[in-house]
Amino acid sequence: MYKVLVIGCGGSGAKTLAYMMDQLRADLAVFGIKEIPGCWQFLNVDTPLQEEEGQAVGSVSKQGGAYVACGVASGEYAVVDQALTERVQQGAPEGLRHLATWMPRHPRDVTFPVTVGAGQFRGIGRLLILSKLREVSHAVEAAMARMSSPESQEQAARVAAVVPGAGTVPDISAPPLVLVVSSMAGGSGASMTLDVCRLVAGANTTPAIDPQLISVFLYTAEAFGSVPAHLRAGMPGNTLAMLGEIVAAQAGAQGTTSRQDQSLYSLLGLSNQAGRAFKRVTPIGLKAGGSGAVFGDGTAEGVFRGMGRGLARYISSPAFRDYVSYDIANMVSVPNRQAVSWGVDPTDMVWSSFGYSSLSTGRDRYAEYASQRIARRAVDHLLDGFKLPGATTGDTQRLADLWRDRASLELNRLALPQPSTSTVLAGSQAVDQATVSWILSEQTSPTVNERTLRERAREVVGSLFSRKMAIQGGITPGDWIQTNERWLLSQEPQVTAELSRTAALMALNLSKELAQRLADNTRLDLAELGIPYALTVLTHLRQSGGVLAALADHLQAIGNADRTRPLAPPQGTMQKVRSLGNGTLGSEGLRGLDNELQAQLSEQVFYWLAAQVSQDLAPVVRDLAASAIKPLENVLNDARKVLEGARADKRSAFGVADVATDLYAAWPEEAPPGQVAAVPQRFATAHNEVVLMGVDTYAATFGVHVKEAAPVGARDETGRAYQAVVQQVVTGEWEQGAGDPSPADLLTVTASWVPQGLPGATQGSLPTPARYELRLRPADLLRRARAFVSRRGESFEAFTSQSLRGFLNDDTVGDHERDQRSQAVQAGLRRALEMARPLVEIDPQVYATLHNGDRPRLAFNFSQVPFRNQPVAGEFLDYLSHSDAFDTDLVVDNFNRSLGDDDVARVDVFGSYPRSLPVAYSGLLKSVAEAWDAATGSAGAREAFWRFRRARPLAGGLPMGDDERRALVRGWWAATLAGGISRDPWSQVNDQHSVRVWDRQEQEWVDFPAPMLTPPSQMIAPNAWLPAVLESSLLAYLRVSREGMAAFRPWAALRRWADDGANGHQERYGSQTPVETMLATLLGQGAVDGLTPVVDLTAATTPAERRTVLLAFVDAVCQDLEASYLPGAGKADEPGRWTNFRRRELVETAPLSVDLAAEMLAELQAVRQSLASVVPAGAAASPISFGGLEY
């Protein structure tokens, strides 16, 4: 594993990160991991003060990432402008020069509120983020701290332990890889990307972040083709400006571009010494390279999802190691760079490409579909299960009818007496016969019934007689009676107390059994007919005059009936003894009388005990209604409200990779009778996801699996089977089989009911109402549905857990089916290969020009392919070997190295082109070129195209490095002196007229594009031609599709006036530079290539005179540059003298020359030095020598 910091800039970056996190969460959930490990950090940087929510997935922060808002609380741009102006001027008197040529000339020019965005203007967007540099920097440092925390290490260890191919836990001291995702086209993201990269590279973290490990993924304007035209009006100009700035940042590492950013940051109070901002750029368009096929449905959202999914799989795949070792570390050669990237190491300049797809069974999504569909049906059943389909009867009447029909069943299951009008005598009173039978029935209670009551009575009397002193023979009957009466009377208090305790304990046991049956029966009622019916049953039990109230009255009547004291001398036995007269009783007779007395007393005690239990039960039964049933009704009503609320909640679910959701509205619905159930759109796979089980097969497959998963007795019909499955999921009870035990957690008694009226039996416990936990929330039902679907060895699990290798080698199917599956896998691999093409197009002609005739050959990398020694692998290798659509040898080798035999569920495919310079990416600027072409005829349209697009001084916005830019500036001065620049006089300028440069190599004039991005009509000053010409080098990129690399010819011709090195400056000791050669000719002959010099040399007849005239012109220009454009103490600071910019008003008239004035002066001075010292052509002089030998 690698430590990875992923940063999204702007809306497109935020959406991509959200999809990326959603995919990671889904992939990790398969292995029981619920959180993204902290070694992968996600940071969203955007303009809105409140992070925006996506439509399909949760925001970055809601999924565990962080958010930095770069917007401002005030909606007025003028507030931002004033604050920023004051800060840079406080930092340095001339600080405003950093902003002068690209910030709005007047604050009033920005008419939209900046609280929620940059209005699709890059320039405005950067001004906003400049006020939030410290916040972004702190957020990066906080993310790095989280990444290195012990908790993150533990999370990474869990992932490494259970996720195949995840690798080992990252070294805590290793620097992270950083992926920045943004767009080239927007206002916010495109404006802040480079600053974010530089802030990351310069962040104060341990370990330090290596800018060589920072990669940028950028959506091009093409990716937004589905956006309505009026919503993407600013995208073409933003894209072009972003191209210039990002190429300048690549080419200017450690150079002018980085120093300008560092200086501006310093003025704003932030120290950042990052020279390089990032290593690699990967553009992302809409069309697949090579085929030109539009990605998916052509929407930007589809591209965001596809990229988010691909990047998630990338950082979690072994293929990421190839990216680190190859794309970042390896050197790159671009042999022919005369036109672009001159003077820069191509390794720093090349861009990458990225494509992704996967092949899987797709059954993991089906498992979640099945779980959610069962859970939704369970919710519907719990709320509507009592209803008859199609019936017009009201709910109240339907529930009343059900109670009438099922009352006897309910009472039987509760072991309560059935209603009866029969009575029986208890003493002299008539009592309810059904209640008496209920007390004595073993069906009522295994612990309180006639058998147990008699047993207890015999035990009490037997214990009593065991303590009785034996009476010797020879006693008279009268004495026997008197002795026993006194003895019974003496024992009665003790025995009565013991019997009272026994009765209370028996009543308590029976109350516990009643409470248990109540819970059990409620579970059954919920499963069978739902919550409203279960509440109806409880109401009939509890209500006044209801079942329990009547039972309590009957029990009280039994308890109040006349009853003999438990140890009252049995009159039958006593009368029998009296009838014996005055004789004496022998030992044998005494034993017989004692046995009879014991039997009679046992019978008396039994009746007394039964009556006492009844009497004790009467208040218990009443309290059962109040303290056990009422709390149960309350939790059922709460559950009903929760489910009704869930069913009324119409919010959309977040998650497309992680389709898990607790939202009822997002769960699959049941189809009307006779129709096929529709599958929610969010279950649809991403456009770069190839699955062997299509979403359209879910419904039919579900019907088969439901029948197979139902209890054996319910499998005869799908509807009956489905109902049985739903009932099992409601209760959480099913046959365990080979897997984990069922949860059985529908209804839990969290606090047992302690009834009133039995203080002696409850051992001092105070009467306590029962408390229940009813797990019937949508999340509870879904959890149980998932557990049901995942039962090991059952129909759903056996299907959904099958790996790709298992899919091919399934012994339960026949040869024909296996052959069909092999063909499906083969077709899936080919389609995955096609879908993994990078979303960017390479121009083969431009690539060939840059790379010495080579072709841009596609390459593919693979995660583990579990088909080693399988026929399908050989067939696919044969297909690869005979294809010319990619680098065959490399792809075949990569595929062979990836073959394995693990039971993986997915094969990831990553596609890429060889790295090349930005100009080779043909799809990058197609829509931009179209927009510019459409605008060229209208000054207003051109102004709208370019207004507020550039977000840096010109040196940081030109697509070239320092050497090339300086060579172009020097070449301009050289060509100007020789007359090699042709343009309209300032008084007669026409935007449609081209500036021309003389191509000394081809001996002809070459036109720069016209109109330019900053045409003469907008130059403000007559000495801004050179900056405007250099700025319009961006337009060459728009013309490549029509003209090829010849589009860059004017700038190459201009550069050759100063330096004719092939790919960069080449020192040649002892040889003249092109400037020196030209000046020598100009001085010696008065003209170069027949051109008319910038100053009239006709009167100067000697080289010395010519030198004097030319030096005077050069000195005048140098003096004007110094006085008008460069800062310094005591200089004029007013329109026409743009030096220190102490006043904001100077920005209103600042020309482009402000940005390049220092370089223009330095290069002109270098030309002057050559002019002053060069030996004129034709003059007698020693050849130039460096003082060494030539050999």
TrEMBL record:
Q: Which InterPro entries match?
A: Tubulin-like (IPR025904)
Name of protein: Tubulin-like protein
